[in-house]
Structure formats: structure tokens, C-alpha cells
């Protein structure tokens, strides 16, 4: 465990605003969205760039499968084959094509949920992970609470209507922000098509993504479509440009493709990428001729900012009181966490910038000489 450095150092080289429920700067008058509710955020900070009824809880249809897929991935063991639950896969609506007694993997089910939006895949995943759909719904709501989704209730893993099932656009943006941190989720949701293997016996087939934005707008990296009669057209997408990722959510939107593209045009016109400057950090050493060693983050951190403005950013340096030599270059010795007020933006491993040898004491030197002499005797024997 690392001990948290006592001081919070406030630096003024970056602007970051807290994720909140209302737009944080004026929206162009010509920006009009047909959705009943929507939100556009910058993913790294959660900064709200545009919102409309974003806190209102509404049915969100198959965008529910973002949570189902995330929990399935987090449950692990993605590539072990198993037989689907035959009752679970008998469900109406969109399907990945599962049939009774099919052999499948959790990874294939994740593709089946995020690409063709298979309700059969969602139900099969729920039973595989939690044993039953009601038990899985409990896991969904527990994870939602951990993420900070306060206007959400999950009843089904697929998004087919259940009493009380719904979420706000703001909550769905929070969920997507969390899901995109998972490399497996991110890899799957960005694919326009994929070859997966299932059946009895399993054989390869191609699944196609229902998210047309992947082919309509440069930089789109997912995420999930949805539709039911009650929810209308729902869409959650993400788009990356110059290292900055925006997340857009629209609920009950008859013109969702165009709305998302217009919102991205607007969002990227407002922000620009900035790389966080790195403070000088050193770690005290014991057992070395060197008193301390310089540390550096594993990689630079980049966020989107508005007008290159200056704002409050704090960071915590998490280090042990000292490190024991020897230390190898690149060895992780701590972490650097960036915050806006109390909200964590990211956490970066701190790596040794050079190596440090252990100090040879007279006693240790005699022992090393003894070992060296012993090796010579053995070689010459």
C-alpha cells in the first residue's frame, strides 16, 4: 500500500470542470436536438458540453446492454465454452442467432450483445454470470450505484421493458465512461463486424454492428443502439479526435444519427486537447549510495479543455515512505492521481527513471568475496 502524500498541490495549468447536471457554458442557439433527453460530455473529465432533460429517467431500450456486457466482461473467464440456458434464449426482439443447446463463450455473447444487439445473448450472459435474470439485475443495480448512477433502475439485462426499468441520459453517459475504460469492451464496441464462433458444434459466423455511426462519422468508436415502442430510438456513442473522447447519449430521438453528428461537430469545436504537465517527483531510497531516485508517470495524460482556460486541478502523489535498493529502471514505485476538486480524473503508475544499485557494506562485501571464491573453486574442480 502506498501512503498518500499529505499535501494536495493545486496547479493552474489545466482547466477541468466537474461533471454536473446542467450545461457548463452557453450553447449555440442554432444547436437543436430532437431527442426527449440527451447529453454530451468529455470522457476524461466528465465535463458536460451540452444537455437537455439529461437528469430525467426514461426507458433506454437496448443501451441497457452496455451494463450487461460490462458485467459479463468483469466476471472473467471469457473464453471457456459452455452450453446456453435454453429458457433464457427464448426471447423476443433482436437476436445473435442462439439456438437450444448451443455451445458459446462469454466473449462471443459480448459480441452478440454489442453488435447485433442480441436479447438472447443478454439473457444467456445474465444466467451464465449470476445464475438467473433476477440475480443478475441485482448485480446491475449494485454496479450502477458504484458508478454513481442515481437515476437508474435495471430490471432486465436486455432492455426489454420491465416495471421501473429506465435511466437518465446523464447516468448512461457515466456508465459509458466507465465501460470505455475496459479495453475488452472498447475493442468490441468499435467493430463494424466480427467473426465469432458458436453453435452445436460451434462454427464461425459473422455478426454486424447496428450502429451506423461507425460508418457515417470519422472517429466514432461505438457504443450501442436501442429501440422499443416505449423507449423510441435510443443511441449511446463515443467519438475520438486528437486524443480527446466525447460521449453522446440520446433517448427517444427520431433523428439520432444526425443529432449525434451535429453534437460532435459542436463539441469538438468547443474543446482542444491538452497534455497534463508532470510535476517533479522523487522517491527516498535506503540501502543505496543514492539518496533518492526520480520518478515519472508511465505515460502522459491528455484531456479536452475549453478555450485553453486555466482551472483548478489537484494531484496526489502516492508513495511509500522509502524504497529499498536495488531499484530497476521502469520499476513501479508509486502512483500519481489527478483530481478536479474531489473527483478523480485518472491514476498513473510512477516508474523509476533510472536504476539504483544496492550499497555494499563491508560485511556484505566480505560475503560477496567468499561467494566469488567459492564459484572459482567449483569451476576449477
Task: Explain briefly what this protein structure is.
The chain is of the alpha+beta class and 381 residues long.
Note down, in words, how this protein is organized:
With 381 residues, the protein is of the alpha+beta class. It has helices at residues 65-74, 106-114, 119-130, 133-147, 169-179, 183-189, 213-216, 256-270, 362-380, and strands at residues 3-4, 9-14, 37-42, 48-52, 82-83, 103-104, 152-153, 166-167, 193-199, 202-208, 220-228, 232-241, 244-251, 271-275, 281-286, 292-297, 302-306, 311-319, 323-324, 332-340, 343-352. The strands form six sheets. Strands 1, 2, 15, 16, 18, 19, 20 and 21 form an eight-stranded mixed beta sheet that branches. The chain has a five-stranded antiparallel beta sheet with strand order 4-3-13-12-11, with helices on both faces. A hairpin with a 2-residue loop joins β20 (332-340) and β21. It is globular.
Order of helices and strands: EEEEHEEHHHEEHHEEHEEEHEEEEEEEEH
Helix content: 25-40%
- Give the overall pLDDT as a whole number: 87
User: CATH homologous superfamily of the largest domain - what is it?
Assistant: DD-peptidase/beta-lactamase superfamily
What percentage of the residues does DSSP assign to strands (E)? Answer: 25-35%
Q: Between the first and last Cα atoms, what is the distance in angstroms? A: 48 Å
> Number of DSSP strands?
21
* CATH class division of the largest domain: Alpha Beta
How is the CATH topology of the largest domain named?
Answer: Beta-lactamase
Find the structural class using helix and strand composition. Answer: alpha+beta
Report the major sheet: 8 strands, mixed
In DSSP terms (H or I, runs of 4 or more residues), the helix count works out at 9
Unreliable residue runs: 1-29
Amino acid at each position: 500500500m502506498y501512503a498518500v502524500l499529505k499535501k494536495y498541490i493545486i496547479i493552474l495549468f489545466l482547466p477541468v470542470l466537474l461533471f454536473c447536471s446542467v450545461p457548463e457554458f452557453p450553447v449555440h442557439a442554432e444547436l437543436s436536438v430532437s431527442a426527449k433527453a440527451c447529453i454530451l460530455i468529455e470522457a476524461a473529465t466528465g465535463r458536460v458540453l451540452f444537455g437537455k432533460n439529461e437528469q430525467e429517467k426514461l426507458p433506454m431500450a437496448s443501451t441497457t446492454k452496455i451494463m450487461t456486457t460490462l458485467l459479463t466482461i468483469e466476471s472473467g473467464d471469457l473464453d471457456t465454452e459452455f452450453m446456453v440456458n435454453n429458457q433464457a434464449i427464448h426471447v423476443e426482439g433482436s437476436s445473435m442467432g442462439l439456438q437450444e443447446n448451443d455451445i458459446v463463450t462469454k466473449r462471443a455473447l459480448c459480441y452478440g450483445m454489442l453488435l447485433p444487439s442480441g436479447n438472447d445473448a443478454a439473457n444467456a450472459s445474465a444466467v451464465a454470470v449470476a445464475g438467473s435474470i433476477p440475480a443478475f439485475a441485482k448485480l446491475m443495480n449494485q454496479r450502477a450505484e458504484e458508478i454513481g448512477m442515481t437515476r437508474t433502475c435495471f430490471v432486465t439485462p436486455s432492455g426489454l421493458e420491465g416495471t421501473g426499468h429506465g435511466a437518465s441520459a446523464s447516468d448512461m453517459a457515466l456508465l459509458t465512461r466507465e465501460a470505455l475504460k475496459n479495453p475488452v469492451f472498447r475493442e468490441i464496441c468499435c467493430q463494424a463486424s466480427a467473426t465469432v464462433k458458436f453453435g452445436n458444434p460451434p462454427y464461425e459466423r459473422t455478426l454486424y454492428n447496428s450502429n451506423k455511426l461507425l460508418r457515417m462519422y470519422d472517429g466514432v468508436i461505438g457504443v450501442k443502439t436501442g429501440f422499443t415502442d416505449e423507449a423510441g430510438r435510443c443511441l449511446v456513442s463515443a467519438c475520438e479526435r486528437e486524443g480527446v473522447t466525447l460521449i453522446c447519449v440520446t433517448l427517444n430521438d427520431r433523428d439520432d444519427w444526425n443529432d449525434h453528428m451535429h453534437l460532435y461537430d459542436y463539441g469538438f469545436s468547443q474543446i482542444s486537447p491538452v497534455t497534463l504537465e508532470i510535476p517533479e517527483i522523487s522517491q527516498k531510497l535506503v540501502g543505496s549510495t543514492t539518496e533518492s531516485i526520480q520518478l515519472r508517470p508511465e505515460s502522459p495524460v491528455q484531456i479536452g479543455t475549453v478555450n485553453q482556460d486555466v482551472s483548478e486541478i489537484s494531484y496526489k502523489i502516492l508513495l511509500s515512505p522509502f524504497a529499498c535498493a536495488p531499484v530497476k529502471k521502469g520499476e513501479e514505485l508509486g502512483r500519481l492521481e489527478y483530481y478536479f476538486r474531489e473527483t478523480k480524473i485518472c491514476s498513473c503508475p510512477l516508474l523509476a527513471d533510472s536504476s539504483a544499485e544496492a550499497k555494499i557494506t563491508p560485511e556484505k562485501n566480505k560475503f560477496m568475496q567468499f561467494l566469488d571464491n567459492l564459484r572459482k573453486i567449483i569451476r576449477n574442480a
